[in-house]
Write a structure and sequence with these properties.
Transcriptional Co-activator pc4, Chain A, alpha+beta, transit peptide, Whirly, single chain, ssDNA-bd_transcriptional_reg, disordered C terminus, single-stranded DNA binding, 3 helices, eight-stranded antiparallel β-sheet, 14 strands
Length: about 210
């Protein structure tokens, strides 16, 4: 459960890889494409990682595709349990919609924003877990606090994690999120089209660091 996350994730790193393979006879757009991206900030009491969750597509009889699940940007918070050690088993997740990402990246130096989520909304479990994410300025144009609060009415717990993000770190986050909006909206449709045009057995790989 407890590990030194810096052995796995680069501090302040932004990585992106994209690989496609058309070697299978029936290529599935979701299963044949491996993608990941993350930007992680490590601080004394918690770490924050940002990565896109791609939309899921299903082929339709007309030959096109429809969206089964919309994409989002996942914020993952890891509590610190010692110097440079974080407990990923106690992580807290918050998925931002494209509109929420827009609110975050358009923040001014003295502005703040807050989002409220119920993971079980419109189900029989609605209200059991409530999450809130707030981004508030540090002051003097020095950056922001990124805070998550998770209220679990079943387990009777109320957990809160806060990560101070410097002005430079937030600038990287803003740039990463701006690019990730395209990813979560379109799911690299261009790369999919390139893959379909290749001969069976062909393989292409894109890497950006």
């Amino acid at each position: 459960g407890v590990t030194d996350l810096k052995d796995v994730l680069w501090s302040g790193s932004l990585t992106f890889k994209h690989a496609l393979s058309t070697s299978a006879a029936n290529v599935d757009e979701n299963a044949s494409v491996k993608k990941y991206a993350s930007y992680t900030v490590f601080k004394g009491k918690a770490a924050l990682s940002i990565s896109p969750i791609l939309p899921l597509f299903t082929k339709v009889e007309s030959g096109g595709s429809r969206v089964d699940r919309n994409g989002s940007v996942m914020l993952t918070f890891f509590p610190a349990v010692g110097q440079r050690k974080y407990d990923y088993t106690k992580k807290q997740l918050f998925a931002l919609s494209p509109t929420e990402v827009g609110s975050l990246i358009s923040l001014g130096p003295a502005e703040s924003c807050e989002f409220f989520h119920d993971p079980s909304m419109k189900s029989s479990h609605e209200g059991q877990v409530k999450k809130s994410l707030s981004i508030t300025p540090l002051g003097s144009d020095n950056g922001y606090f990124v805070n998550i609060t998770v209220l679990n009415n079943v387990q009777k717990t109320n957990e809160r994690l806060s990560v101070p993000v410097t002005k430079a770190e937030f600038a990287v986050m803003r740039t990463a999120l701006s690019h990730q909006v395209c990813v979560i909206l379109h799911g690299f449709t261009l790369f999919h089209k390139v893959a379909w045009s290749l001969a069976p057995g062909a393989h292409i790989c894109f890497s950006i660091y």
